[in-house]
Amino acid sequence: MRKYRIFSQLLFILLFIFLFFKTTYDKNNLIAYPVKAFLDLDPFIFFSTLFSLRGALRLLPPALFLSLVTLIVTLLLGRIFCGWICPLGTINQWIGSKRSAECRVRSAEYTAEMQTRNPKLFLTYRFKYYLLIFLLTTSLFSLQISGIFDPLSLLIRSFSVSIYPAFQYVVTSILDGLSATGIFWLNDKVDFIYSRSRNIVLSLSQPYYYQSLFIAMIFIAALLMNLYRGRFFCRYLCPLGACLGICSSLSPLRIELNDTCNRCEKCLSNCQGGLNADREEGWKKSECLLCGNCVSSCPVKALQVTFSKGLIPGIQQPDLRKRALLISLSSGIVAVPLLRISPSEKTLKPELIRPPGSLEEKEFLRRCVKCGECMKVCLTNGLQPTLFEAGVEGIWSPRLVPRIGYCSYNCTLCGQVCPTGAIKKLSTGEKTKVKIGLAFIDQSRCLPYGFGKSCIVCEEHCPTPKKAIWFHEKEIGDRGGGRLSVKQPVVDPELCIGCGICEYKCPVKDLPAIRITSAGESRSKVNQPLLV
Known about the structure:
Helix content is 43%, strand content 8%.
């Protein structure tokens, strides 16, 4: 069983990495692989999105119903998703395996005390269930912050915004350094590697993201805690694990202990879930990951995985405290108004330019789980994670920053990879008609207006069939008393779609003379400019 589990973990972590690299532009403007498959199989995302939509099943993307397969498998086989499939669980386990034997013994002793002698300890397996109740309660009141803690969203976001950009920077720096040596045969090898790796493991250009260090620190901290206790995040913090733990308590699979047990506790020190496999009264079915470590490490073969006898398996729900459950529930209710009384809730934010196909802002925030898939797939690196531009509930949701990258005119990839429908999947024809903002010209910085210099860059790069930027030719005087004619750009608000390429290409580099704001966006009837 242990060997099969290791094989399964390797298979699914490689599949995750493969799909992650395939979340990219392929020249056909089509994602050919199921790159969001892991998110589609996540029941926690399913329930949090369903709760935020007040139970409207018809509004859920059809692919999210695949998560019910995970629930059915859990009902039959227990938390096999956590132990055999989840890529973050696999990484946590691998890092936790590097702990010393002494650390594993201390962790086992703590677990024994946690489950039998002192159930009031704060850091227990129960905490993730209380966190699950808190997050689902906030979702029910339309505050969607579940993606901050969801393990798959956390992993994809961390890889997209932090790990992968750092990986590409290191690889390209090494290759550029080898190329700079000037050795002829080495240059050929470097060119071959570059040509083969582009659009496979390396993107067309080096991606840069705001908050990449902050997000990386959170991810690294979550991984390093595995050196303190194995699978730390899985045991104490994972809301998906808590969701599956409730279902697994109904599973007929269980670990049985026979009379040959000599209480050596090797099973306990090797257990990924931190269980008391050698104590009938201490073993928690909801926490068992079906890893097989306890069975394989038992020197007297006292443990075996079997199905419960009888038609109805014994139900062993997590042993939760009523007071803590009430605190979790009430905290979720109180959190909603506390996060919604900021003055920013009443103001329109000019810098909050959402991807094309995004739903109206409130509906968008009710669905977005901050997974980072849209940022990873963005062709120009223009989609960046927010911090507090959209309030606390919008942290790490995507926004377009035209100075970093523009919205490519025919690109529809972000809608194809969004797992919850926060960004609608659009055809190319639909996308080219969607307005995500509006361009405004700062005449004090524009070369033809402020300096009498000819410049046609913004009009030249405007992608709309009938240019949204046109020129007003004006004759002005120069310093010597002469006259010269310059073309001064003018924005047509009816044609401008706010793609941001004009701001990206503007030759005034420090603060561009033409800038995009969210005004005029198609998704909002309120955020419209007052034109007279």
